[in-house]
């Protein structure tokens, strides 16, 4: 891999994502991540990028080039197409979404180590908006008054405080970046290819993964809510209800996304201010689709339609039901709903529609009034990069999760005993602080609420936890001389709030990993950062496999605790199957490089099928099973701030007094020549701060003389001051 080629291409991509088009950034309402018409435009744009990239690759293939030059030129050709599209007034959000998906799946990008930019490198993060206070009000709309109101408690400051308590969690930057990148890796619109101009999905069980990943998000959100005594669990969306609390994005996002007013529900039809092509559907249509999907699950088949109009049936089985229900509910693009390759027989979209996706847009249009103007923008629910910020995302996905639970309850879990690895016994599982001097009470793990990163549009606080480890003890039940014949096995670990342990949907996957027993007994220690669920590094802006970026944020791996400790259970099981040993990716949420999900069992096994309804039933079911263990622990919330490194913001750190002197003349000349970034201008340093910081970390900056040779890196003190300047919003 040529690091210089990578840096140059990555800089061009950052410029594309950060530069404001001359004709204005937006209009975001003309492209929305979940709308079917937008999906078609996205497919077309992705195809243009792929065609340009491949044409450039063919053109340079016969030439004698430096290593990585062919890949570099291939990617630059795609970048030129994207830049030209924006100049031609193609919606910039469409172009950037297409580029993000293209980069995530491009072999040339993977070879060079180029990745789709993290959210903090997008325009709305690179240049935080300063919004006058008078612009922060909820838009005035004419409410649609239902004939009767559902029975609700009065909306008061206290009741609104309850839902706002969780804003720190929903507005967490890393959570939003996770959700955004997951949808880049697994776009419902598919991946464009040149061959026959067809699209394909990323992984064989993408529908199942869609349901499972979002179900796990919901389980974690509900666990978080339990840590605050005044908040209950999320109720599912009822199509005729109104949403009590309003939602207004943080100030820096209000130039792009609109507010949602309180006490509003879905429009009966759709916004009259949106062109027909980009409109949503009526509430009755959504109900029609919902009822048909539920009916299909109950009766065990979905209707299909061939290109000639003939109708057929597609039967659900225990093996395919979860995946196909996910495909239909999300819904994946029409081409991806072919029941078997080459059959020209597709799930009947007239009957089942695009429920999940247009549900997002039905919420996004609440409060929206105008088109092609700067007033009352489309809500965050229309965009993968910000949707989880709105409380209604979780209400909607609680409903979507009910479809998954219908499949869970439809099929019984028969493999609990049969899954045991032969001659291996699980004797203990425990979660412990990594720090032997931790002040957390025995049998517990501590969480902390730290200061939010305001520059990344976080609010109120940021969740984190003390570093922890899993300690798993295993014994062989055969003689010493037979241990060498034992096969590898998989350890699967889940947690759940003890008060909800009787509900299968509440179990949160924490890790799964492969083990081999080479002695009579062994203790396996697994660190939190090694989890198959989590992102592999705290800062995903560093190069890595793009599938790492869709893992669950490290700082949110442990749900928030309480001051006295909230009771949790640990469920651990050994299974006689072999999963991927690729430790570089977040396997549980992100899959594998090929088209096969790297775990042969159902996602979330053994909670993917029904096997208990009460905690006593669960305990009875695992009684006598040597490969299953249930234990308990507490999660505490510490009152003091916890930070891996305390950053003290000194009063005299500013651009004028400090930061401008960090860069030498050689640095400025190099950056202007290579990247057209002027280090003498504060606005350039602010705009490209994360890119500059990356060059500092890899030693490209500072440079020495005219040779561009690396010299000594910035001191820790200088790095700390640069970070403090960013955190203080660039004084």
UniProtKB/TrEMBL annotation:
Entry keyword set: Disulfide bond, Metal-binding, Secreted
UniProt keyword annotation of Kinase present: no
Pfam families the record matches: Hemocyanin_C, Hemocyanin_M
Domain Tyrosinase copper-binding span(s) in chain numbering: 390-401
Keyword 4Fe-4S carried by entry: no
Database matches in InterPro entries: Di-copper_centre_dom_sf, Hemocyanin/hexamerin, Hemocyanin/hexamerin_mid_dom, Hemocyanin_C, Hemocyanin_C_sf, Ig_E-set, Tyrosinase_Cu-bd
Name the UniProt record assigns to this protein: Tyrosinase copper-binding domain-containing protein
């Amino acid at each position: 891999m040529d690091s210089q080629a990578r840096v140059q291409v990555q800089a061009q991509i950052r410029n594309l994502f950060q530069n404001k088009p001359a004709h204005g950034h937006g209009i975001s309402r003309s492209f929305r991540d979940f709308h079917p018409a937008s999906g078609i435009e996205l497919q077309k744009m992705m195809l243009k990028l792929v065609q340009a990239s491949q044409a450039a690759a063919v053109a340079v293939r016969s030439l004698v080039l430096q290593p990585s030059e062919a890949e570099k030129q291939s990617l630059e050709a795609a970048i030129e197409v994207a830049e030209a599209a924006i100049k031609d007034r193609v919606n910039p959000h469409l172009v950037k979404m297409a580029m993000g998906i293209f980069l995530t799946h491009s072999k040339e990008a993977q070879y060079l180590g180029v990745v789709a930019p993290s959210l903090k490198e997008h325009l709305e993060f690179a240049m935080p908006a300063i919004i006058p206070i008078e612009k922060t009000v909820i838009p005035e709309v004419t409410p649609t008054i239902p004939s009767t109101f559902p029975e609700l408690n009065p909306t008061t400051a206290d009741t609104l405080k309850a839902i706002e308590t969780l804003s720190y969690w929903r507005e967490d930057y890393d959570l939003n970046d996770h959700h955004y990148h997951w949808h880049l890796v697994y776009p419902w619109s598919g991946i464009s290819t040149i061959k026959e101009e067809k699209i394909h999905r990323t992984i064989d069980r993408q529908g199942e993964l869609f349901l499972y990943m979002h179900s796990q998000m919901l389980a974690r959100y509900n666990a978080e809510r339990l840590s605050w005594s005044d908040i209950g669990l999320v109720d599912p969306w009822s199509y005729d209800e109104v949403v009590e609390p309003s939602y207004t994005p943080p100030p820096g996002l209000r130039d792009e996304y609109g507010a949602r007013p309180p006490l509003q529900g879905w429009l009966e039809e759709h916004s009259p201010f949106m062109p027909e092509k980009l409109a949503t559907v009526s509430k009755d249509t959504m109900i029609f689709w919902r009822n048909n999907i539920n009916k299909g699950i109950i009766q065990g088949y979905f209707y299909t339609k061939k290109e000639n109009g003939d109708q057929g049936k597609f039967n659900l089985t225990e093996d395919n039901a979860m995946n196909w229900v996910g495909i239909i509910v999300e819904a994946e693009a029409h081409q991806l709903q072919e029941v078997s390759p080459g059959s020209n027989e597709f799930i009947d979209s007239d009957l089942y529609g695009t429920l999940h996706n247009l549900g997002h847009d039905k919420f996004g249009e609440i409060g929206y009034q105008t088109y092609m103007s700067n007033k009352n923008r489309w809500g965050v629910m229309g965009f993968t990069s910000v949707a989880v910020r709105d409380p209604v995302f979780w209400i909607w996905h609680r409903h979507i999760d009910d479809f998954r639970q219908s499949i869970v309850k439809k099929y019984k879990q028969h493999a609990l005993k049969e899954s045991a690895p032969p001659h291996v016994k699980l004797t203990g599982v425990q979660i412990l602080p990594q720090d032997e001097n931790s002040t957390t009470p025995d049998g517990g793990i501590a969480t902390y609420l730290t200061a939010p990163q305001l520059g990344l549009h976080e609010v109120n606080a940021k969740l984190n936890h003390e570093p922890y480890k899993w300690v798993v003890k295993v014994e062989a039940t055969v003689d010493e001389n037979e241990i060498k014949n034992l096969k590898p096995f998989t350890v699967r670990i889940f947690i759940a709030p003890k008060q909800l342990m009787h509900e299968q949907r509440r179990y949160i996957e924490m890790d799964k990993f492969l083990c081999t027993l080479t002695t009579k007994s062994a203790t396996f220690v697994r660190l939190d950062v090694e989890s198959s669920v989590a992102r592999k590094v705290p800062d995903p802006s560093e190069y890595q496999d793009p599938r790492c970026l869709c893992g669950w944020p490290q700082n949110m791996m442990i749900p928030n605790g309480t001051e006295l400790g909230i009771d949790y259970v640990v469920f651990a099981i050994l299974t006689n199957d072999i999963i991927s040993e690729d430790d570089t990716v977040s396997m549980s949420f992100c899959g594998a490089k090929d088209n096969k999900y790297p775990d042969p069992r159902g996602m979330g096994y053994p909670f993917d099928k029904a096997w208990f309804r009460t905690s006593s039933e669960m305990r009875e079911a695992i009684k006598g099973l040597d490969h299953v263990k249930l234990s308990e622990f507490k999660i505490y919330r510490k009152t003091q701030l916890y930070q891996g490194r305390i950053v003290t913001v000194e009063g005299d750190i500013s651009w004028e007094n400090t930061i401008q002197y960090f860069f030498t003349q050689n640095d400025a000349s190099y950056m202007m020549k290579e990247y057209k970034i002027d280090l003498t201008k504060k606005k350039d340093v602010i705009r490209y701060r994360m890119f500059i910081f990356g060059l500092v970390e890899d030693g490209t900056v500072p440079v020495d003389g005219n040779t561009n040779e690396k010299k000594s890196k910035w001191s820790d003190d200088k790095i700390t001051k640069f970070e403090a300047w960013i955190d203080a919003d660039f004084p």
